[in-house]
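User: two proteins, same treatment. go.

Assistant:
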Amino acid sequence: MAMAGLYRRILPSPPAIDFASSEGKKLFTEAIHNGTMEGFFKLISYFQTQSEPAYCGLASLSMVLNALAIDPGRKWKGPWRWFDENMLDCCEPLEKVKDKGISFGKVVCLAHCAGANVEAFRTNQSTIDDFRKYVMACSNSDDCHVISSYHRGAFNQTGTGHFSPIGGYHAERDMALILDVARFKYPPHWVPLHLLWEAMDTIDESTGLHRGFMLVSRHQRAPSLLYTLSCKHESWITTAKYLVDDVPVLLSSDTMKDANNVLSTVFTSLPSDFTEFIKWVAEIRRKEDGGLSLSQEEKGRLAIKEEVLKQVQETGLYKLITNILYSDKLVCQIKQTSGHRDTFPNIAASVCCQGAGFLTGKSSSSDRFCFRETCVRCYRATNGDKPVTVVSGTVVNGNNGEQGVDMLVPLSQTEPNIGSCDCSGMPPASNDVLTALLLALPPQTWSGIKDRKVLDEISGLVSVETLPPLLQEEVLHLRGQLLMLTRCKDNKVEDDLRAPLI
């Protein structure tokens, strides 16, 4: 006997009021006149239905990230950069989310990793008056959005824990508009704010902690201009542990006699796959009519990246790292442990393969593409603009299909090759990546150095306060990302949502 399928649910009303009902329209009109629906229009422009029954947290976050016009920095499908649920996997495997859903703390972690500015509160860390204040503030602006984590039972709805953005507020009736991302189940609806608070003030059985709400907004600039941390490769857990836990222990040895000795110790013990952990943010473009056409926005992005790279290479730490690598042949050891993957030709090939995966909508399958050829060209502008370095590559997949991609990189002077290691100074060379990674380490990393003179020397080299503002922001973002990922791995993000990230 065939089982009847499920098609929507009847919205229990009261307590909820259907957004499309006569009363719901009246509430909407009145709220618009009172100025508490400003955030609604951006949200409704990117309103989406969760693609999996347990993806409410991912759908809510991707909807808000797109409404805030936060650039993910990587392709979604074709040439388009766009947040999608399937891209939000840096804090929890998608298969696990699909099976069991996601906790409030992990959604907060995802928002941070995606480059958003996040303030999160569990109900036992806040009050209903504070919640109302935040809802009103975000409803009066389109620069901030509220995501609520609540239990459906408070509204007599079927189901348990759920995430959805709040689309607006009616002050006189003290009601909030929930833009339910499970649109296959319930339509958007108005609910009394005190009842929404009660729905949030419940315990998530999977964590034993209260649910709550988060305020998501965008930073004044893209948090990752030139570097970002990657946790898509399993190596990030090993590398993060080494940097956060093991390095301080290594440096507490009595053998730390000078800065060269300290850095060499760090380098010689690096995990073999550390290059998978820190990624150099590259622009990946599809060939169009065999030429290169850059928008003003893209030119601006490249110019800023060039400036960040220049500032990295002007630091005393970069110069010391370069001397150590090239004089002690330590670079050869790093090249060998990382499989020669950070030479410029290999990185160009790797990124071109990744680009082909992005362009075909298969961002997780770049290993299925095989590099065929590449070339490096420098385009010199005739109108005074800076020249642009372009790596063009052709890759093929298992079906003999070809994909041509262009990778735009900030222009950098090529340094001569050293020895037999085929070392290249073009970004992202080992010295470039290592400089960014060491600057991003928390200050306490170096505190175990016993020799005061050596400690002072290292502290001066890794000090963030002395960096130019642009590079300082880049480094602080990396540091925050490292600490957030580490806390997420250890499940500490659930304990204290507002722990400092730098």
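Protein 2:
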Amino acid sequence: MSQDPRAARSATPYWWEAAPPASLPRSPLPAKVDVAIVGAGFAGLSAALVLARAGRSVAAFDAMNPGEGASSRNGGITSGNIRPSLDSLIKRFGKETAYAIEAEGKVARKFLRDLIQTEGLACDYKLTGAFSGAFGFDQYDAAARTAEGLGKRLGIDICAVPHAEQHSYVGSDLYRGGTLRMDIGGLHPAKFHAELLRITLAAGAAVHDHTPVTAIQREGETFRVTTAAGTVQARQVLVCTNGYTDKALAYLQRRLVPVRSRMIATEELPPEVMARLMPKGVMLSEKRQMGFYYRPSPDGRRILLGGRDSSRQGDPLKPTLRLRAGLAEIFPELENVKLSHSWFGNVAMHRDMVPRLFEHDGMLFATGFCGSGVVWAPWVGSRAAHRLLGAEAGKSAFAFRPPAAIPLYRGDPWFLPAVLKGFTLQDQFAMRRARR
């Protein structure tokens, strides 16, 4: 049976071509550690790095190859988005917390830039700026007002881009203007994880891959961490599993919903096409709930586009076709372009839709990044480490109560197709209004 010509050549992440996740040399488990970390993605490694350099004995455990989950599958856009609007944050958490969350985004993006530059991490990082397209003039006017307020409050370089000027950033007629924010860029996520792993191991932290944690029990002032390879006694425990949380952490699993996010990569495009469609090489997104995020590949030869995937089992063709249709909607000339890769990974959503650092039963959790983990996972992971050290740097606007449990949910997101369909209908209604 021949492959559908609309499908991608490969179902593995494009990023793995240059930096495939790999197993580490096997090492025996220590009997005792100061800190056991569950998860060796961006958050877990960022925490392990801080702790190891502070002289703590650290063991991080991952059920897969380090970074094989979301850390090496995402779009590599350093957005640091917070999904609820400022008004929604104020209503939910109060004005002081809402403004603190907003302000911490600026600090977290700078933290990531400084980490990459100071540590010399070779991950194709570029501070390109990011354009977000608006649908209809009403949405553009609202986005322009939001950008003006954000620029004044935080002193960041952000502005409205009217429809007449949007071709300077994206070669598409789909939008009616948008906003440009210059403190956002792009990196190669698999290379970033590989480099973060390198410096974390060099700092003295131990990372045990293919070693899932099966149980954690509190024993007085310490914890018994049971893994597939044996048991470790830990003075402190940090959980950073995010979208790959399983039933061994049932308390967290009831609060996080794993949502598939899928990406496609085109085959290499002619230089003149890339120059026309992405003239400044900025990161790109849309102002709709089921919209797409997209970008040039680090070498500037392909377009990578991502969005939500409502499938729950296997690797069906339909989600790839949805992204292909979205790419053609933005760039009609790419309707028949060949795809080199189509892949998915889990992001972790929850009822608050705000990243979180919280404690439960003596353990610390750094999780719930809601699709913006490139910025938030290293930041919240590092804040968690400082919190375990009792340092002032452990303070964060995200350190408050745990996300609420989801009724009738025990890890199987049976309701997701209906939820995503609802978002799609809302977008369709908004698009109809935008055409008036």
